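Bug: token stream looks shifted between consecutive jobs. Job 1:
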Amino acid sequence: MIPSGQRKQSPGCYNGKANIAKAEIHDYSCSFIKDELLHYPLLVTKVGAIHPVNTNVEEISMNEPNARTKLVDLSQFVLVIQWNQPICKEFDTDEMNARSVFSLQWLKDWAYDMTSLQSSRLGREISIEHTFIHKYKNAIEEQDQDEIHKRASHKGLISVDYDNVTNEENRDGLLTFLDALFLDGSAIVTNSPSIENETDSDNVVSTVGKVIGGSLSHGYLYGDTFHVKSTTNAINVAYTSRELGPHQDLTYYESKPGFQLLHCASMPLNIIGGESILIDCMAAAHTFRQLAPDLFATLVNCPATFVKDREGARMTYSRPHIVLQSDYCGGGGGNNNNYDNGNGNGNGNGNDIASNGEIVGVHWAPPFEGPLRIHPNCVEDYYRAYAAFELMLDNTKCPRACSQATGLDLSLTTKLASFGNDYTWQSRLKPGEIMVFNNTRMLHGRREFELPKSAETEAMEMERHLIGAYTNIDDSLNRYRVFLNEMDLYRIIPNVGNGSQSALPS
């Protein structure tokens, strides 16, 4: 449909009878293609496009003197197919409606033969190599001084100055920040403005949040910005001094928050504990499948129930802990709940998908889990698999105790626990720092804390005070992609954890 470039005919109009009458490869300099472009400029696909036709009308307007040069720069060759009849029954008999013109590069980018699908998956399915801790360790091993310098100050996390993030003219600073968020899953903003009052603190975290997502999100329960500090009669375990194990926020939403920001407004010097923690649950799931494929399949096939039930909130959402996307027909997203055979594998496709499906989501929030709704025969398997995966995500859990409780071999539980020990980031935030992380990919938490009391220091003590906010993952990913496009850059973006493959062709 001109000029929007969206489909005029639905895929359902395909009649299945069109055959290729002739196929030729041309470059943009041949007279045939020139004439074609003059009359039908939108019929040629643009390299990097998502729609099958070019939606950037201004860029290829034939009124521009060097329009053809722009097209040649995008892709040198095109495939011209002449069909023996119009492909869709609703097309008229115009010869042009029985002709297709494709950029060869576009066809290569969007190819879906199995080799191409598997190759593209390697870049976007998150593994240990994608974690910022691995990148930091690798930089040290390779003696990459530039990479070490970028990551050393915050134990592997890249840090960016507040002014470099929020100054619209400093695109290099913003690029460093967004790259860290989408490629590593987390980053630290340093030197944010000093806090004079609560309004100032809200403005600081809001400003950074809007840089990422355009606007803040998920404000119904706690507000657009919320204050994390220990209170009496707390409505959330986060508002206490107790330990808060690794988890994602708001898993009881259909679409939980994308990026979360936690701005450290104050942190007492004499505090004991209170360190923030992060771990990449997508990388953990990837390793879990390698170490314990049967346990992995259980968490793919058995849905958990996530809940929020208090005054002003009655929310529940059921989903498996690990979500997969299959590259072949007959395989779903991994949520196979047909338990007729009593083993949790449904009609037999569940384990195939668990073995081959691409990991596109993990859902984990122990404090916010409700009653199971699965076949009774699957319950014991579920708890065994749950305990095993938790060993990888929470490095306070004991592999020997897990082995004794579940019957799993101690050698396996030890290997599982080593992931949590090796890939858990732990650090106490300093006033002025903002920890920003992908809530759909990274689990976050906090160590228990206390403030020693004494006559000399009591009056001087501050409270541990973080200010939080959320963004929507779709808006944030879109802003990053558009920003890269504006700067004529390309990144292989790992899956962001929202239940879908995230990478676009180059």
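Job 2, same session, no restart:
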Amino acid sequence: MNVPSKFVSKWNEEQIKELNGVTKNSQKAQTRRRAQAILLSNRGCGIDEMAKFFEMNRETISIWIDKWEQAGISGLEDKPRSGRPCTLPEKELVIKLAKENPRSIVKVIALLKKKRVNVSVTQQ
């Protein structure tokens, strides 16, 4: 079955330059990824190809294109989400220890327990 594809509208060099900047400089990986998809679409890459490349479904890629068409760069960024705020008062310590021991969560937990910081770990 041949599924039709959609592409972003063609745009000028300044918009392409701005998107290239987002792919290189955005703090958030997801925003960089969406910008890359928009650039690929502008170059004629179809939704099916992008879905395989980004390991996403077609609908997700289609939504990225729609958001770009509606809102430009701001449409590629995650919107604020509600949720429970962090209740860990020693958040900076946890981040520091995780950066020092990126491949050993067990060691991080042991160090936190040594400093009498209560954390719970759930397996997924």
